[in-house]
């Protein structure tokens, strides 16, 4: 930390006495500059402690001299007494007090070189501390990036190192925040992010300085740091930008490689090479879902398909396959995938199975046909069995089918006419979604327990076991008539 006027004045061996500016002694001293010039502005950068014996000063010239020093931005003035002046000129003290310039009286016994050495030692110590801090921060950020922390860990470490908050944006969307509460700043920075194309931008947010820095990545990523940054802090942020850029690109490359591997696995399974596909998946360290599998295919816009793959990452085996997303696994994956697709929107899926690994190709083809049917009917999910059942209706005489449907569904329609619940539509939606409670309930806009009660009432009124595939097929045919 830079030496302040207060710390220098407190150095007893120097014997300095504060004449003015008691409330301004927290100013840091950038350097010391002895001069007897009456106008030294051309030789100053600002932040210096100026030392003079007042050789060319008197009561008349002192006021304008002080004002020139203030314009030059000096931190303070050290006036040596006992040589040109027995005491600091009263006009100088009065003007300095008026314009806010700290003045330190330097006794005759204290050479200016002693003050210069004191400041020099402090500056050297400060620079060394800054160098050490930067070095340690670089090591910590690098270790975090290459370890288990990844980009999110780098953000948390950076926030701690600079004593502030950090956000990572993908375009104008917050993807990571440290601490989590910092996400609240995201909306306020959106307009500035839209203006920023590349490089650095410093903005003010609620009176706090925020640094926006673009990252060197293929996607448009921006790092936002809300903190009062000193020299070390700025170096630390620059290091974080480099480390984050590399970590994010590595993550992107690894994700692309994983997706390519999964797409290859699907291609092998679809080509009838199940044994080879499972061997490759096992060798690559992937988990092999235990057959038999339900196979799902989802169609939709590219952006929606990407979001679905991201949502399923780590939970379900899912891969790109042409213009669709393919997922497979035990029956439980149906609810997981359908719920994610429903949240994202714009997706239409088909499900087939359960199938063995050797029958994957047939299941995939059936799921694709069902997905196209779902797309045509604007439904979230259609089962292959349901889609196939529709084709059977063309083989049944319409009059016979209508009579069958009327008789079978009559108890449900009579119940619905009383206004005590919509059993027919609830049954239709439940069958459409392969008997999966959460997805069907969400589609109907009711709680899953409400749907369970309705289906239980359906079974009671019909006197049928709805767990029977044959009963479900009959009901579906009746509902399509």
TrEMBL record:
Residue ranges annotated for the PucR C-terminal helix-turn-helix domain, each copy included: 423-480
Coiled coil regions, renumbered to chain: none
Transmembrane segments: none
The Purine catabolism PurC-like domain, residue ranges: 15-122
A Pfam family this chain is assigned to: HTH_30
InterPro entries hit by this protein: CdaR-like_regulators, PucR_C-HTH_dom, PucR_C-HTH_sf, PucR_dom
PANTHER family linked: CARBOHYDRATE DIACID REGULATOR (PTHR33744), DNA-BINDING TRANSCRIPTIONAL ACTIVATOR ADER (PTHR33744:SF1)
Name of the protein this chain belongs to: PucR family transcriptional regulator
Species this chain originates from: Amycolatopsis melonis
């Amino acid at each position: 930390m830079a030496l302040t006027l207060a710390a220098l004045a407190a150095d007893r061996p120097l014997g300095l006495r504060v004449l003015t500016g008691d409330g301004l002694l927290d100013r840091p001293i950038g350097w010391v500059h002895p001069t007897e010039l009456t106008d030294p502005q051309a030789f100053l950068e600002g932040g210096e402690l100026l030392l003079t014996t007042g050789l060319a000063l008197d009561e008349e010239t002192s006021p304008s001299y002080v004002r020139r020093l203030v314009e030059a931005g000096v931190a303070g003035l050290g006036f040596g007494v006992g040589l040109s002046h027995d005491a600091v000129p009263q006009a100088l003290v009065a003007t300095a007090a008026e314009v806010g310039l700290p003045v330190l009286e330097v006794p005759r016994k204290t050479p200016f070189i002693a003050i210069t050495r004191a400041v020099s030692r402090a500056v050297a110590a400060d620079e060394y501390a800054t160098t050490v801090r930067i070095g340690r921060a670089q090591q910590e950020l690098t270790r975090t990036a290459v370890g288990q922390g990844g980009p999110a860990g780098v953000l948390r470490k950076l926030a701690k190192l600079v004593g502030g908050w950090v956000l990572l944006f993908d375009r104008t969307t917050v993807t990571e925040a440290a601490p989590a509460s910092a996400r609240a700043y995201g909306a306020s920075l959106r307009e500035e992010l839209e203006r920023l194309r590349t490089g650095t931008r410093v903005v003010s947010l609620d009176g706090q300085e925020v640094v926006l820095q673009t990252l060197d990545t293929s996607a448009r990523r921006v790092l936002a740091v809300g903190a009062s940054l000193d020299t070390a802090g700025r170096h630390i942020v620059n290091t974080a930008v480099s480390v984050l850029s590399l970590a994010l690109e590595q993550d992107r490359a690894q994700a692309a490689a994983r997706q390519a591997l999964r797409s290859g696995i699907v291609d092998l399974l679809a080509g009838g090479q199940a044994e080879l596909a499972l061997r490759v998946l096992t060798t690559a360290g992937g988990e092999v879902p235990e057959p038999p599998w339900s196979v799902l295919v989802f169609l939709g816009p590219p952006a929606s398909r990407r979001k679905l793959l991201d949502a399923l990452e780590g939970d379900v085996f899912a891969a790109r396959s042409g213009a669709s997303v393919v997922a497979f696994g035990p029956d439980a994956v149906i609810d997981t995938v359908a719920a994610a697709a429903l949240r994202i929107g714009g997706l239409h899926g088909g499900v087939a199975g359960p199938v063995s690994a050797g029958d994957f190709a047939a299941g995939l083809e059936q799921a694709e046909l069902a997905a196209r049917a779902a797309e045509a009917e604007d439904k979230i999910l259609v089962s292959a069995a349901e889609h196939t059942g529709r084709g059977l209706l063309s083989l049944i005489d319409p009059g016979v089918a209508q009579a069958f449907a009327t008789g079978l569904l009559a108890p449900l329609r009579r119940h619905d006419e009383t206004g005590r619940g919509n059993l027919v539509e609830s049954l239709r939606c439940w069958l459409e979604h392969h008997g999966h409670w959460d997805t069907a309930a969400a589609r109907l806009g009711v709680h899953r327990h409400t749907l369970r009660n309705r289906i239980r009432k359906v079974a009671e009124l019909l006197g049928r076991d709805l767990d029977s595939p044959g009963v479900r097929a009959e009901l579906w045919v009746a509902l399509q008539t």
